[in-house]
Amino acid sequence: MTTYDVHAHCIPTALLATLRSEGPRLGIELRDDGGGEYAVIADRVRLSPFNPALSDLDARIAAMDATGVDVQLLSGWIDLTAYALDAEDGAEYSRRFNEIISAEAGRHPDRLTPLGTIPLQDPQRAAEELEFAVRDLGMAGVQIATTVAGTDLDRAGLDPFWEAAASLRCLIVLHPCDPLPGVDLSRNFLDNMVGRPAESTIAVGHLLFSGVLERFPDLVVCVVHGGGFVPYQMGRMQRGFDAVPRLAAQNITVAPSELARRLYYDTVLHDPKSVAHLVAQVGADHVLMGTDYPFPMGDPTPVATVEGIPELSDDDQLLILGDNVSRLLAAVRR
Hints:
alpha/beta; eight-stranded parallel beta sheet; TIM Barrel
Protein backbone atom coordinates (compact mmCIF):
# COMPACT_ATOMS: atom_id res chain seq x y z
CA MET A 1 0.00 0.00 0.00
CA THR A 2 1.30 3.43 -0.98
CA THR A 3 0.58 6.33 1.37
CA TYR A 4 -0.40 9.63 -0.25
CA ASP A 5 -0.32 13.17 1.09
CA VAL A 6 -2.97 15.11 -0.85
CA HIS A 7 -2.22 18.51 0.70
CA ALA A 8 1.37 19.78 0.41
CA HIS A 9 2.79 23.03 -0.94
CA CYS A 10 5.95 24.13 -2.72
CA ILE A 11 7.62 27.02 -4.52
CA PRO A 12 10.24 25.49 -6.84
CA THR A 13 13.51 27.41 -6.99
CA ALA A 14 13.08 27.51 -10.77
CA LEU A 15 9.81 29.41 -10.30
CA LEU A 16 11.53 32.01 -8.14
CA ALA A 17 14.26 32.37 -10.75
CA THR A 18 11.66 32.80 -13.48
CA LEU A 19 9.79 35.43 -11.48
CA ARG A 20 12.99 37.37 -10.85
CA SER A 21 13.76 37.52 -14.56
CA GLU A 22 10.30 37.57 -16.18
CA GLY A 23 7.89 38.38 -13.35
CA PRO A 24 7.62 42.15 -13.96
CA ARG A 25 6.55 41.52 -17.54
CA LEU A 26 3.79 39.23 -16.26
CA GLY A 27 2.71 41.54 -13.46
CA ILE A 28 4.54 39.83 -10.57
CA GLU A 29 7.42 41.64 -8.92
CA LEU A 30 9.70 40.10 -6.30
CA ARG A 31 11.00 42.44 -3.60
CA ASP A 32 13.06 42.22 -0.43
CA ASP A 33 12.93 45.02 2.14
CA GLY A 34 15.23 43.17 4.52
CA GLY A 35 12.64 40.84 5.97
CA GLY A 36 12.79 38.21 3.26
CA GLU A 37 11.79 38.00 -0.38
CA TYR A 38 8.10 38.48 -1.20
CA ALA A 39 5.91 39.05 -4.23
CA VAL A 40 3.66 41.90 -5.31
CA ILE A 41 1.00 40.83 -7.80
CA ALA A 42 -0.60 43.27 -10.25
CA ASP A 43 0.82 46.19 -8.26
CA ARG A 44 -1.76 45.72 -5.50
CA VAL A 45 -1.56 42.30 -3.81
CA ARG A 46 1.40 42.01 -1.45
CA LEU A 47 2.20 38.51 -0.21
CA SER A 48 3.96 37.44 2.96
CA PRO A 49 7.68 36.63 2.69
CA PHE A 50 8.35 33.24 1.16
CA ASN A 51 8.88 30.32 3.52
CA PRO A 52 12.30 28.85 2.54
CA ALA A 53 11.06 25.33 3.32
CA LEU A 54 8.70 25.59 0.34
CA SER A 55 11.72 25.45 -1.96
CA ASP A 56 13.90 22.88 -0.16
CA LEU A 57 13.39 19.66 -2.09
CA ASP A 58 15.86 17.59 -0.08
CA ALA A 59 14.18 18.59 3.19
CA ARG A 60 10.81 17.70 1.67
CA ILE A 61 11.87 14.17 0.79
CA ALA A 62 13.48 13.73 4.21
CA ALA A 63 10.26 14.87 5.93
CA MET A 64 8.24 12.44 3.85
CA ASP A 65 10.57 9.61 4.86
CA ALA A 66 10.34 10.58 8.52
CA THR A 67 6.53 10.75 8.55
CA GLY A 68 5.73 7.68 6.45
CA VAL A 69 4.50 9.54 3.37
CA ASP A 70 5.36 7.68 0.18
CA VAL A 71 3.96 10.18 -2.34
CA GLN A 72 3.08 13.88 -2.08
CA LEU A 73 0.62 15.55 -4.39
CA LEU A 74 2.64 18.69 -4.97
CA SER A 75 0.69 21.98 -5.04
CA GLY A 76 1.97 25.51 -5.24
CA TRP A 77 1.63 28.00 -2.41
CA ILE A 78 -1.99 29.08 -2.72
CA ASP A 79 -1.07 32.78 -2.48
CA LEU A 80 0.77 32.43 -5.81
CA THR A 81 -2.33 31.48 -7.82
CA ALA A 82 -2.23 35.14 -8.96
CA TYR A 83 -5.85 35.55 -10.02
CA ALA A 84 -5.33 39.32 -9.80
CA LEU A 85 -3.37 39.26 -13.06
CA ASP A 86 -5.17 40.09 -16.28
CA ALA A 87 -6.33 37.15 -18.37
CA GLU A 88 -3.43 37.02 -20.82
CA ASP A 89 -0.72 37.40 -18.19
CA GLY A 90 -2.53 34.93 -15.94
CA ALA A 91 -2.60 32.34 -18.69
CA GLU A 92 1.10 32.73 -19.46
CA TYR A 93 1.99 32.64 -15.78
CA SER A 94 -0.05 29.47 -15.26
CA ARG A 95 1.68 27.78 -18.19
CA ARG A 96 5.13 28.60 -16.85
CA PHE A 97 4.12 27.57 -13.34
CA ASN A 98 2.77 24.23 -14.52
CA GLU A 99 5.82 23.41 -16.61
CA ILE A 100 8.09 24.26 -13.67
CA ILE A 101 6.19 22.35 -10.98
CA SER A 102 5.90 19.38 -13.33
CA ALA A 103 9.68 19.42 -13.79
CA GLU A 104 10.15 19.72 -10.01
CA ALA A 105 8.03 16.62 -9.43
CA GLY A 106 9.95 14.90 -12.21
CA ARG A 107 13.11 15.06 -10.10
CA HIS A 108 11.51 12.43 -7.83
CA PRO A 109 8.76 10.90 -9.99
CA ASP A 110 8.20 8.02 -7.61
CA ARG A 111 7.66 10.40 -4.65
CA LEU A 112 6.00 13.51 -6.11
CA THR A 113 2.88 13.93 -8.25
CA PRO A 114 2.19 17.49 -9.47
CA LEU A 115 -0.99 19.52 -9.19
CA GLY A 116 -1.11 22.59 -11.37
CA THR A 117 -2.59 26.06 -11.28
CA ILE A 118 -4.97 27.68 -13.75
CA PRO A 119 -6.07 31.24 -14.66
CA LEU A 120 -9.57 31.15 -13.17
CA GLN A 121 -9.88 34.87 -13.96
CA ASP A 122 -10.52 33.68 -17.53
CA PRO A 123 -12.68 30.52 -17.40
CA GLN A 124 -12.09 29.50 -21.01
CA ARG A 125 -8.33 29.85 -20.68
CA ALA A 126 -8.59 27.99 -17.37
CA ALA A 127 -10.28 25.07 -19.12
CA GLU A 128 -7.62 25.03 -21.83
CA GLU A 129 -4.77 25.15 -19.32
CA LEU A 130 -6.38 22.35 -17.33
CA GLU A 131 -6.47 20.18 -20.45
CA PHE A 132 -2.80 20.94 -21.09
CA ALA A 133 -1.78 20.28 -17.49
CA VAL A 134 -3.54 16.93 -17.29
CA ARG A 135 -3.13 15.58 -20.80
CA ASP A 136 0.20 17.04 -21.88
CA LEU A 137 2.05 17.30 -18.57
CA GLY A 138 0.41 14.29 -16.93
CA MET A 139 -0.71 16.19 -13.85
CA ALA A 140 -3.22 14.75 -11.40
CA GLY A 141 -5.27 17.93 -11.44
CA VAL A 142 -5.08 21.44 -10.03
CA GLN A 143 -5.32 23.44 -6.85
CA ILE A 144 -7.77 26.35 -6.86
CA ALA A 145 -8.56 29.09 -4.34
CA THR A 146 -11.91 29.60 -2.63
CA THR A 147 -12.62 32.78 -4.61
CA VAL A 148 -11.38 34.28 -7.86
CA ALA A 149 -9.72 37.43 -6.53
CA GLY A 150 -12.72 37.98 -4.26
CA THR A 151 -15.47 36.75 -6.60
CA ASP A 152 -17.27 33.68 -5.28
CA LEU A 153 -16.77 30.53 -7.32
CA ASP A 154 -20.45 30.27 -8.22
CA ARG A 155 -20.46 33.84 -9.61
CA ALA A 156 -17.22 33.71 -11.60
CA GLY A 157 -18.66 32.15 -14.77
CA LEU A 158 -16.59 29.00 -14.33
CA ASP A 159 -18.75 26.54 -16.27
CA PRO A 160 -16.08 25.98 -18.98
CA PHE A 161 -13.63 25.00 -16.25
CA TRP A 162 -16.10 22.83 -14.33
CA GLU A 163 -17.06 21.06 -17.57
CA ALA A 164 -13.42 20.34 -18.46
CA ALA A 165 -12.61 19.15 -14.95
CA ALA A 166 -15.64 16.85 -14.87
CA SER A 167 -14.75 15.42 -18.27
CA LEU A 168 -11.17 14.75 -17.20
CA ARG A 169 -12.21 13.39 -13.79
CA CYS A 170 -9.08 15.07 -12.44
CA LEU A 171 -8.57 16.15 -8.86
CA ILE A 172 -9.44 19.70 -7.79
CA VAL A 173 -7.96 20.67 -4.43
CA LEU A 174 -9.95 23.57 -2.98
CA HIS A 175 -7.80 25.73 -0.69
CA PRO A 176 -8.63 28.96 1.18
CA CYS A 177 -6.82 32.15 0.30
CA ASP A 178 -7.17 35.64 1.77
CA PRO A 179 -9.82 34.53 4.27
CA LEU A 180 -12.90 36.66 4.92
CA PRO A 181 -11.73 40.06 3.63
CA GLY A 182 -13.31 42.87 5.58
CA VAL A 183 -13.47 40.85 8.80
CA ASP A 184 -10.80 41.78 11.35
CA LEU A 185 -8.99 38.52 12.08
CA SER A 186 -5.62 40.13 12.80
CA ARG A 187 -5.57 39.25 16.48
CA ASN A 188 -4.62 35.96 18.10
CA PHE A 189 -3.86 34.11 14.84
CA LEU A 190 -7.58 33.90 14.06
CA ASP A 191 -6.99 34.55 10.36
CA ASN A 192 -5.51 31.06 10.15
CA MET A 193 -7.27 29.10 12.88
CA VAL A 194 -10.79 30.39 12.18
CA GLY A 195 -10.64 32.40 8.96
CA ARG A 196 -9.29 29.70 6.69
CA PRO A 197 -11.79 26.94 7.60
CA ALA A 198 -14.59 29.53 7.50
CA GLU A 199 -13.49 30.62 4.02
CA SER A 200 -13.62 27.01 2.81
CA THR A 201 -17.04 26.49 4.41
CA ILE A 202 -18.47 29.47 2.54
CA ALA A 203 -16.97 28.32 -0.76
CA VAL A 204 -18.41 24.83 -0.34
CA GLY A 205 -21.79 26.33 0.54
CA HIS A 206 -21.77 28.26 -2.73
CA LEU A 207 -20.85 25.15 -4.71
CA LEU A 208 -23.59 23.14 -3.01
CA PHE A 209 -26.49 25.59 -3.15
CA SER A 210 -25.71 27.24 -6.50
CA GLY A 211 -26.12 23.93 -8.28
CA VAL A 212 -22.53 23.52 -9.47
CA LEU A 213 -22.10 20.10 -7.87
CA GLU A 214 -25.50 18.93 -9.08
CA ARG A 215 -24.89 20.09 -12.65
CA PHE A 216 -21.41 18.55 -12.78
CA PRO A 217 -21.68 15.30 -10.81
CA ASP A 218 -18.33 14.01 -12.10
CA LEU A 219 -16.34 16.76 -10.41
CA VAL A 220 -13.68 15.39 -8.03
CA VAL A 221 -13.12 18.07 -5.38
CA CYS A 222 -11.09 17.72 -2.19
CA VAL A 223 -11.60 20.39 0.47
CA VAL A 224 -8.56 20.94 2.70
CA HIS A 225 -8.51 21.35 6.49
CA GLY A 226 -11.13 18.64 6.81
CA GLY A 227 -13.68 20.66 4.88
CA GLY A 228 -13.68 23.61 7.24
CA PHE A 229 -16.90 23.56 9.27
CA VAL A 230 -18.93 21.73 6.60
CA PRO A 231 -18.95 18.25 8.19
CA TYR A 232 -20.08 19.71 11.51
CA GLN A 233 -22.89 21.76 9.95
CA MET A 234 -24.20 19.37 7.29
CA GLY A 235 -27.36 18.87 9.35
CA ARG A 236 -27.99 22.60 9.47
CA MET A 237 -27.60 22.92 5.71
CA GLN A 238 -29.97 20.00 5.21
CA ARG A 239 -32.48 21.60 7.60
CA GLY A 240 -32.39 24.82 5.58
CA PHE A 241 -33.01 22.87 2.39
CA ASP A 242 -35.96 21.04 3.94
CA ALA A 243 -37.51 23.84 6.02
CA VAL A 244 -36.91 26.92 3.85
CA PRO A 245 -36.82 25.60 0.27
CA ARG A 246 -37.91 28.95 -1.23
CA LEU A 247 -34.47 30.25 -0.22
CA ALA A 248 -32.19 27.22 0.12
CA ALA A 249 -33.53 25.04 -2.69
CA GLN A 250 -33.78 27.61 -5.48
CA ASN A 251 -30.99 26.04 -7.55
CA ILE A 252 -30.80 22.41 -6.46
CA THR A 253 -33.03 19.36 -6.34
CA VAL A 254 -30.49 17.02 -4.72
CA ALA A 255 -30.18 17.22 -0.95
CA PRO A 256 -27.12 19.25 0.18
CA SER A 257 -26.10 16.46 2.53
CA GLU A 258 -25.87 14.11 -0.46
CA LEU A 259 -23.94 16.67 -2.50
CA ALA A 260 -21.52 17.28 0.38
CA ARG A 261 -20.84 13.55 0.56
CA ARG A 262 -19.72 13.62 -3.07
CA LEU A 263 -16.79 15.81 -2.04
CA TYR A 264 -13.51 14.59 -0.59
CA TYR A 265 -11.92 15.94 2.57
CA ASP A 266 -8.38 15.83 3.92
CA THR A 267 -7.41 14.82 7.46
CA VAL A 268 -5.76 18.08 8.57
CA LEU A 269 -7.96 18.55 11.64
CA HIS A 270 -5.31 17.99 14.33
CA ASP A 271 -7.46 15.62 16.37
CA PRO A 272 -8.22 11.97 15.53
CA LYS A 273 -11.67 12.35 17.15
CA SER A 274 -12.49 15.19 14.74
CA VAL A 275 -11.39 13.03 11.82
CA ALA A 276 -13.58 10.25 13.24
CA HIS A 277 -16.59 12.60 13.03
CA LEU A 278 -15.64 13.47 9.44
CA VAL A 279 -15.47 9.77 8.55
CA ALA A 280 -18.85 9.17 10.19
CA GLN A 281 -20.37 11.97 8.11
CA VAL A 282 -18.92 11.30 4.65
CA GLY A 283 -17.47 7.77 4.79
CA ALA A 284 -13.86 6.60 4.84
CA ASP A 285 -13.93 6.36 1.04
CA HIS A 286 -14.14 10.17 0.84
CA VAL A 287 -11.37 11.07 3.29
CA LEU A 288 -7.77 11.60 2.11
CA MET A 289 -4.63 11.96 4.21
CA GLY A 290 -3.04 15.41 4.17
CA THR A 291 -0.30 17.35 5.94
CA ASP A 292 -0.29 21.01 4.75
CA TYR A 293 3.50 20.64 4.49
CA PRO A 294 5.64 22.62 5.30
CA PHE A 295 3.60 25.07 7.37
CA PRO A 296 3.49 25.17 11.19
CA MET A 297 -0.27 24.55 11.13
CA GLY A 298 0.28 21.31 9.23
CA ASP A 299 0.06 17.79 10.62
CA PRO A 300 3.58 16.57 11.50
CA THR A 301 2.41 12.98 12.07
CA PRO A 302 -0.21 12.30 9.38
CA VAL A 303 -0.04 8.51 9.44
CA ALA A 304 -0.31 8.47 13.24
CA THR A 305 -3.37 10.74 12.96
CA VAL A 306 -5.12 8.21 10.74
CA GLU A 307 -4.03 5.26 12.83
CA GLY A 308 -5.34 7.06 15.93
CA ILE A 309 -8.89 7.53 14.62
CA PRO A 310 -11.19 5.80 17.14
CA GLU A 311 -12.70 2.49 16.02
CA LEU A 312 -11.51 2.80 12.42
CA SER A 313 -11.21 -0.56 10.69
CA ASP A 314 -7.97 -1.67 9.06
CA ASP A 315 -9.63 -1.50 5.65
CA ASP A 316 -10.83 2.05 6.25
CA GLN A 317 -7.34 3.06 7.42
CA LEU A 318 -5.94 1.80 4.14
CA LEU A 319 -8.52 3.79 2.19
CA ILE A 320 -7.60 7.04 3.93
CA LEU A 321 -3.85 6.48 3.95
CA GLY A 322 -3.63 5.94 0.24
CA ASP A 323 -6.09 3.65 -1.51
CA ASN A 324 -8.62 6.46 -2.11
CA VAL A 325 -6.03 8.66 -3.82
CA SER A 326 -4.68 5.73 -5.80
CA ARG A 327 -8.21 5.05 -7.07
CA LEU A 328 -8.79 8.70 -7.98
CA LEU A 329 -5.49 9.00 -9.83
CA ALA A 330 -6.21 5.85 -11.81
CA ALA A 331 -9.55 7.33 -12.92
CA VAL A 332 -8.10 10.55 -14.38
CA ARG A 333 -8.92 10.63 -18.11
CA ARG A 334 -5.66 11.62 -19.73
